[in-house]
Fold each of these.
Amino acid sequence: MKNAETTVAKLSEVALRRWSMIAPGDRILIGASGGKDSTTLAYDLAVKRRWWPDRFEFLALHVETDVGEPQDRAPLEALFRDWGVPFASIRVPVIGRLKPGERMNCYWCSTQRRTELIRYALAEGFHKIALGHHLDDIVETLLMNMLHKGEISTMPPVVRYSKYPLAVIRPLALCEERQIEAFAREKGFASVTCTCGYDGASRRKEVRAKIEALTGGSSELKRNLFRSMSRVNAEYLA
Amino acid sequence: MKNAETTVAKLSEVALRRWSMIAPGDRILIGASGGKDSTTLAYDLAVKRRWWPDRFEFLALHVETDVGEPQDRAPLEALFRDWGVPFASIRVPVIGRLKPGERMNCYWCSTQRRTELIRYALAEGFHKIALGHHLDDIVETLLMNMLHKGEISTMPPVVRYSKYPLAVIRPLALCEERQIEAFAREKGFASVTCTCGYDGASRRKEVRAKIEALTGGSSELKRNLFRSMSRVNAEYLA
């Protein structure tokens, strides 16, 4: 195993164990966008399935939309075939579903795609939806929620739906983006990232720059931000 | 009443009420450093004492140290005499109390001064210690604790000591620094701020720049950071 691969594998193992993400017999649906994060996640789960103490099954589901340039799915399918990652794909007309007068935005698109993942999971008997969000995403959402919603909250590593027999898990919660990038480079796969150019992407870029300013690029300080979420000292808050 | 004075008076009234900072018959000791914050606080409490529904007494206590240039207390005393602020002063050899080989730092100095305030309050029968920390201080401490301690905590508007029959109150918790500065300019008092040049001051300056980068100077975003502390969504944390 190479360097970046080991790092990602270990950090995902810690997350899977710390938050008890996998139960025996779980059927896990991976939201596979074609980007580096979920592609890394698919690889990681494919390797882990071979030795993980609890048996589990998984499927990478690509939700194709009518937003942005059409993507060529062939390279992703070839990669997944190589890695032994079962793959399926569905098409959702995200723009087509807008009501007259409504404008396209990132929130709408991601809500629609999430809804389709849930629907597919329920229909096909999956227990978990695994998403590729990493530590930087989680810290960014924390800061965005504090700054824009005035609330301390984020995307947690595990969320159990109350309405459905389903949970969302984020096995890469402890991986930094740079570690995932290093893995993608090491493994030599080109990612097909979101190219839509809507507002959410630019807002995330802005927050990314803010976290850079906050931490001065230090991983330790960024990890402290992450760690602070599990250490809320209610007596010492306003 | 002028503009900045009204702003500070109203925000401090909201804080005093929201966190029930004053009880009938309270004797309040103000930690008066000579800086703009605690000087503003002393003025504000002097005005409020004349009409506040609950009767209270107060005294501004200046804790002089052997750190930095000796300060001329005369201008501060004259100001307080003008405003009807009862004033006292004690001297604490902060450097003199260092054990051999120990180096002076901001943490030591502020701990020593705090200890003296508590000792004085207990000896003289005060119920509250009022400090001049403002919203920027509280948000800065939140970010510093997240970044450096990996913990979500800050200086709260009210802290009750478990060991003593004493509470710390921060009536300016809802005032931004710029509002206090505007008041100081409006009122025309020059502040005798800390001139010690130790490390803590520079670290605080650094965090101040980081918050500037985070909020882009927007008061709304800074107030959202403050507000987030009272809205911790534990279900959506890592």
Amino acid sequence: MWVRNCWYVIAWEHEIPADGFLARTVLGEPLLAYRTGNGQLTILEDRCCHRQAPLSKGRREGDCIRCGYHGLKFDAQGSCVEVPGLDKAPPGARVKTYPVAEHNKWVFVWMGDTARADITLLPDNFSNDDPAWHYKPGYMHYDTPYLLICDNLLDFSHLSYVHEKTLGGSPAIAQARPVIERVSDKGQRGLRVTRHVPNVPPPPYYSKIRPLSGNVDRWFIYDFLLPGTLLMKSGGRPVADAPDDLSNAVQLHSCQTLTPETETSTHYFFQQAHQTGRGDASVTEGIFQSLVAAFNEDKDMITAQHRNLNADAAMQPLWMDAALIQWRKLLEQEVATEQARHAAA
Amino acid sequence: MWVRNCWYVIAWEHEIPADGFLARTVLGEPLLAYRTGNGQLTILEDRCCHRQAPLSKGRREGDCIRCGYHGLKFDAQGSCVEVPGLDKAPPGARVKTYPVAEHNKWVFVWMGDTARADITLLPDNFSNDDPAWHYKPGYMHYDTPYLLICDNLLDFSHLSYVHEKTLGGSPAIAQARPVIERVSDKGQRGLRVTRHVPNVPPPPYYSKIRPLSGNVDRWFIYDFLLPGTLLMKSGGRPVADAPDDLSNAVQLHSCQTLTPETETSTHYFFQQAHQTGRGDASVTEGIFQSLVAAFNEDKDMITAQHRNLNADAAMQPLWMDAALIQWRKLLEQEVATEQARHAAA
Amino acid sequence: MWVRNCWYVIAWEHEIPADGFLARTVLGEPLLAYRTGNGQLTILEDRCCHRQAPLSKGRREGDCIRCGYHGLKFDAQGSCVEVPGLDKAPPGARVKTYPVAEHNKWVFVWMGDTARADITLLPDNFSNDDPAWHYKPGYMHYDTPYLLICDNLLDFSHLSYVHEKTLGGSPAIAQARPVIERVSDKGQRGLRVTRHVPNVPPPPYYSKIRPLSGNVDRWFIYDFLLPGTLLMKSGGRPVADAPDDLSNAVQLHSCQTLTPETETSTHYFFQQAHQTGRGDASVTEGIFQSLVAAFNEDKDMITAQHRNLNADAAMQPLWMDAALIQWRKLLEQEVATEQARHAAA
């Protein structure tokens, strides 16, 4: 169950080499991404229209891609411009191209109707490219369906347990009830989750950012937007400080996004940014390492959950599932809308 | 095709740690076994009723298990006694529990109707816990269906070939026809196999127990009981000795049992005991190593057989299949009885 | 889609040991090949008629095979001649045997109706066993369907791209159109492909055979015969030499054949022979190493193609597919003929 008419992140900008290309599968479709001589990003289906060999087994020739099996050559518009032994390629010979966008260090691909591709729908992942923020970019591959990872990101009560010794540090996170709202401004569709956790010990990984001796008030305020993008402000402030005094606070901004690779595997792109001037490169590295350690805790749990799923067994709904349930409804609505539109066309 | 209303061995007693737990799948159901503070064994379904994460990814908290994903806590009766953020857990929230029994160092789980669990049906695996007998406990995992291993244990003619250089030592074992009888006393259901093999060389592994220079008369007398438990007296006596003179004999008792893990994998618990006073720890170790070597010969053959099975090819019935055929009938009858009872309920 | 009534290569002669046997699966059937005391090759189904264990887990006993599970013994005609514990084996107890032929170092098995086995249908793989030719025999295992490798061998345009730095060396190979003819003399059924490539640089691997400084005229003339055997004359002659002057030419003969192992895996037997006197053992080894390097290039491409195949995606037919298309028609006709014959019988 995938929404197609939205922007999926296919790569961090730096993953696409200047001269070569990147091959990555999105929604089960093999894609090849590269940058032409004038800097324009291009995404082609990574499957030659002749015998279905991956074009990524071939090579760049200027702005074109030459298939490495029988030598067909395709331009950046997907048209076959050369077939060995023919004066002219057959007019219909081409591979599919996909709308592409670059926005704050993320490269996006539009997997739905080309006519609907709309760059105003790109998420506000500002901290990926803002001099006020520092981070190290992350990527992780999951061998689980994307929806199980959405579930994880929509319910931070797991921080108290999965991340007890990393991002969590207190059972109070799981006890604090978040406010969940529907987000639909500027065409973005998703959920806003706001969780305040007063008077708790600073989580273990804060020690890498800023040593805080007493308890803190923590907050997590994030949008989780279609197709699976988390944009979050989070932080902690010493309880003794006035509510508007952030001078001793830890303040973070995080951009994370999930892109289904196949029905049972997922790409995960993420960063957690700290404010420039609040620490040097070792702080940036420390946050990154803490995040990777914590995300491996998630991966371990979600992978075990995935293997343990039994379609015949029930799931007991609980209050902390509120966002998960709304998210599944939202996905179902979007998919139904797309299918109805498709059937009408 | 599994019988459910019977005791399956889930573990050797020593496999269940004092403070932690053991996770093991039986008949396709993930189980978690642990011992409460008062020593009582407990078996819970290893699948949280909330989002199906394995409870074994969580932790013990006293006599309870805390799920490591969202922190639900379950007591030893399977009831959810805590949900983070709720004053009281929902009344129906619970995981399944299973009847459990300890008997002579084996831990048993009852996979059928709880009301039918009956400890008088536990097998007479006495040598597992008898000061007159010494052994080293064994466990082996098979990636083949349980029934193929039952076949192996029900026909010892394979000792002459699979175990020619270990437990066998003579083609005469395969030539000797066993007596096969139905066992049904004390509620136990199964087969009794009695095989005498006169005047053969002692098998290679006897050298680790007691060097015997001339030929011996060997015997194998065992019950093979539902669900898949072998209880055997075996031994060999110098042919020159009087029939009732066991002073120079090798005498062994063996307890072995098969527990299906999934449709295509199996747990195998086993020991071969020798009489106390008939050799020291090096004899115990020698017998164990010989048994492991021999059981790896079985595993190698059965795994190859499993890969080679062709449902379209016939199997030529032979006299040595008599016990296998009776066993399959017994299993079919039991399964049919259970299904009829289930349909009536 | 396999033709059954033809000779498949199961092994190079040297792969069948004097005293043991070779186990290899052909068309999904496990086979066991061995040589009896008088030198006669024998192929049995590698599956005991009793409990389907592979006979190859057993052992040779003279000209017989003893099953390693329960000791049944089979002679070279597949008859069970001994069952432990029986005076006489049951009359119907036997394993299937297959017609076998040896021809120029290849061992062939007939997978169709025994009555139709006809040694006049063996291919003319003369250079496998001709003192005028030298080669080193090769074998490679593919985890792809056989038909994708047939496609590769039926269209040498890929030499320009897959083998650019090994067997190819020029885009002109892909541009040169071959003549494709149906072959059906002497009962052989297949295609003849004749391709001349004038005035191109010698391919990189010629340097291992005979350094040629200027351009050459190259030729590839081969039959591709059922079930998947390539018999090829190829070579190159300095363009300055007269057409009938081969004194400075590279001349090669190659025998290659594909045998399906399963629906998705394939055996590949091959050699590329050079003329005796045209180089010593280091030339033979150099050609072999070049061939293996090139065939690994094929395997890499075909494996990637296989993973990338999408049954819902179209394939654009091009001129270079002419032989592929004819080959598929030929296979379909043969299979249809066999099925009609089978239905009539």
